[in-house]
Amino acid sequence: MAADDFAAKLAAEWHEVLIIGAGFGGLRMLHECREIGLDALVLEAGSDLGGTWYWNRYPGARTDTESWAYCFYFSKALNDGFAFKERFATQQQSLDYLNHAADVLALRRDLRFGQRVASAHYDDAQNLWTVITTTGARHACRYLVSASGLLSVTYKPPFRNVDAFQGETYITGHWPKTPVNFAGKRVAVIGTGASAVQAIPIIAHEAAQLTVFQRTPNYVMPARNYVITDAEQRELRAGFDAMVAQCHRQIFAFPMEDSTLAVKDVSPEEQQRVLERGWEAGGFRFLFETFYDLLIDRESNEVAAEFVRRKIRTIVRDPVTAERLCPKYPLLAKRPPLGHFYFETFNRPNVTLVDVGDDPIEEITATGVKTGSREFGDFDIIVYATGFDASTGALMHVDVRGRAGQSLADTWNREVQTQLGICMNGFPNLFMISGPQAPFANIPMVIDRAANWIGGALRHLKATGQDCIEARPEACRAWTDYVQMLLDATLLSEGSKLHSWFLGANIPGKKSAPLFYFGGAPRYFGEIDREAQAGYPGFELSSSRVIGEVA
């Protein structure tokens, strides 16, 4: 029986490739399939494309990567046709860019909206995936690609009686499309991660009173955002190819140059001068263009960490508040966000900081928030910025079953193992873009390379008359051990004590494990390139032509 006949028997719509998610990853993978000549369809839960930039509409949402490098890298002409307005694009600007790309590349005809995937089951005998959405739509495919994003499942407020609050409640990761009116309102923001750091300064401008509940203080780098002039736009377009090359060689795939200087190479006076220059440059340049050993040397890290603390103490007028905002853990042990006058916001008379690190929130009341020893009430609005079930969360919230009905959620609850962060043993023809154990770096660049690698694997299968690819168990074990070794060589390994989502430690009950590759983007790109060039030795390739030919 041919594959499409089998799909018809299942009353399922047949496509050679099904892609979950219409954000950067899904659109990039759809374009890759078009280039190969494969019939592909994108299933998207939202009512339109955008992924992260569709769902995250909270006030102040914007990229932490320079806008001209937060893009699709495969086409200079595509980017030449779009004007980046600011150094760090707003949510709307990023959404505008993705819509521009979808229109130029004519991708919309293969996007299906309002289709949240509920289950994806692999049929061993037929070598097919059957996918069912929450609307009951049935699909069948040979290859399934998850492009649902590493930060797409919000961590719902973990407090007792969250429904007791009688005012308005919002979650940053699922913000409404209609603007929220904060004018004259008493607002509580719970959380001080990246989303909260962006939202708090904006909300403070309107709210009558803003109370920020902080569990763990954050190292917030100044963004130094600015409007891009026409002359700068022309320069950026002319330098596109050089920018792409720069991202390929930078450790986190950003458009900047890595420092070759260690903290101990220079005098204390020179250390401060270098750090000051990085601070004023803005963005993540403080982390990467100053000293190369901040991630791997504790003493060097402390020099930079104390520099940031001194900045906080200088910026924030009230010394008690300033000290509460000063992190006491290594810089980079948690993901540092970029701030747009974040610390300055705590100088406003209508903003109050409440430290709940040693007195955690226990429940929500009809009027506010209750910790173990205090009650805070009379709020009109509570904003939950409680983060995401990162990396593994998206697929674990879908009923994914591989060979012999093997549950992906059960598998990952025991141990997360992948090959290259792209495939798993026991789940043939399932690919992941920005999957667990792929790099945490400039995400569009990681997406670009992953989609290109998956496309190469599909081309190889087609050229060799095969149609099944599955990661070998020994390759998954080796990759997982390698990812752990790389993590242990950095100060990021301390994140398990800091509720870091890098390790899944922010989700109660979730097994703490390295969810990202921290060996640097260039090294990772070399790893996946060598795997492809060697003929995919970490994978079992086979054919199921007994069920009929699939073009």
Helix content: 25-40%
CATH architecture call of the largest domain? 3-Layer(bba) Sandwich
Secondary structure category: alpha/beta
- Gap from first CA to last CA: 14 Å
Describe this structure in words.
With 551 residues, the protein is α/β, with parallel strands linked by helices. It folds into 2 domains: 3-47 and 113-153 and 390-547, FAD/NAD(P)-binding domain (3-Layer(bba) Sandwich), CATH 3.50.50; 162-384, no CATH class. The chain contains 18 helices and 22 strands. It has helices at 3-9, 24-36, 52-55, 76-80, 91-104, 194-206, 230-238, 240-249, 268-281, 285-288, 298-315, 319-324, 342-345, 393-396, 408-414, 443-463, 473-488, 521-533, and strands at 13-20, 40-43, 111-112, 117-123, 128-133, 138-146, 168-171, 186-190, 209-214, 221-222, 338-339, 351-355, 361-364, 369-371, 375-376, 381-384, 399-401, 430-432, 438-439, 468-471, 516-517, 539-542. The strands form 6 sheets. Strands 1, 2, 3, 4, 5, 6, 17 and 18 form an 8-stranded mixed sheet that branches. The longest helix is centred in the last third of the chain and has 21 residues, at 443-463. It is globular and about 75 Å long. It starts with a helix and ends in a 9-residue tail after the last strand. Residues 546-551 have low confidence and may be disordered.
